[in-house]
Write a structure and sequence with these properties.
Length: 300
């Protein structure tokens, strides 16, 4: 057992000696491009490694611990080889957050083997802390100022949450007790606006039709009437024939009014009593509109 231990120790010593001798051909250099920096200032640190053939050298990446510095950025450069000697270099941009007057820093490079790696460090580089205030006075002098300075108050979240919840509760109660009435009033308001738009467009279309009783103006007038009646009754007036409209409205006289206008469209002739026909059609829209905005109790 003792001989085995001696053999193992000799093998370890030989391996360490071999690695040490193998690594003597690796030169590592690291330094800052400036000798001092303020807290948090961006500082470039140069790291170089020079080595011969057969070496696998790796530079630190973002997973490395750069304390007491913080890594901001890393820039690498293409390797340069001359007469069997390779030069690798990289720039590490770091920020110093240490309050020490002088901070020592050295980044290593790693020689990677099959199952292990060896660390090579350069001589430590020094970075002095640059103070913004050269010297703090022993006695502080204060300047008198009696001008009123407004102070912003904090937002009172609990109060506004309570107000918002109260508004929701009141709105819910109003909707529960008066929701149907409010909806009805809103619908009547919308219907009144639509009726005003219809009458305005109808008067314009009727005036243009009376001035020029041709096919285009006649078709526009009938289309306007059918579109508005379709809205009031929720029925396909634009797809129905004149007879179907008459049967639905239970109004046989409307056929005569439509004929007065359609004779211009289909026959190119002017009807005998166009103004009266237009007035009758408008009266039908007005009566239907009043029926829609009036409740059954109000009609009686």
């Amino acid at each position: 057992m003792g001989k085995l231990l001696q053999i193992y120790m000799c093998a370890v010593m030989l391996m360490a000696f071999s690695i040490s001798g193998h690594s003597q051909n690796i030169e590592v250099e690291g330094y800052f491009l400036q000798d001092s920096a303020k807290i948090g200032e961006r500082v470039p640190y140069i790291l170089k490694a020079k080595y011969g053939k057969g070496y696998n050298i790796v530079f630190p990446d973002s997973t490395f611990d750069y304390s007491p510095f913080e890594l901001l950025e890393k820039k690498t450069y293409i390797s340069y080889t001359d007469e069997g000697v390779t030069l690798d270099s990289a720039v590490y941009y770091v920020s110093n957050f240490s309050l020490d007057p002088i901070t020592e820093f050295a980044l290593p490079v790693f020689e990677v083997f099959k199952y292990d790696s060896l660390e090579h460090r350069p001589i430590e580089a020094n970075l002095a802390l640059k103070l913004i205030i050269d010297q703090i006075p022993q006695e502080l002098s204060f300047r008198e100022n009696n001008v009123y300075q407004p102070i912003s108050t904090d937002f009172n979240y609990p109060l506004w949450v309570a107000v918002f919840v109260s508004i929701l509760v009141v709105a819910g109660l109003l909707a529960f007790f008066f929701g149907k009435t409010l909806r009805r009033k809103w619908q009547i308001y919308l219907e009144k606006k639509k009726y005003k738009r219809f009458t305005k467009r109808w008067e314009k279309a009727e005036q243009e039709f009376a001035a020029t009783p041709d096919m285009d103006h006649a078709d526009e007038l009938l289309g306007l009437w059918k579109t508005y009646m379709e809205h009031l009754k929720n029925k396909p007036f634009r797809d129905w024939t004149t007879t179907e409209i008459s049967d639905f409205l239970e109004n046989k006289e409307i056929i005569k009014d439509f004929r007065e206008i359609e004779v211009i469209i289909y026959a190119g002739k002017e009807g005998q009593d166009l103004p009266q026909a237009c007035q009758n059609l408008r009266n039908i829209c007005t009566d239907t509109y009043h029926q829609k905005i009036t409740s059954p109790d109000e009609r009686e």
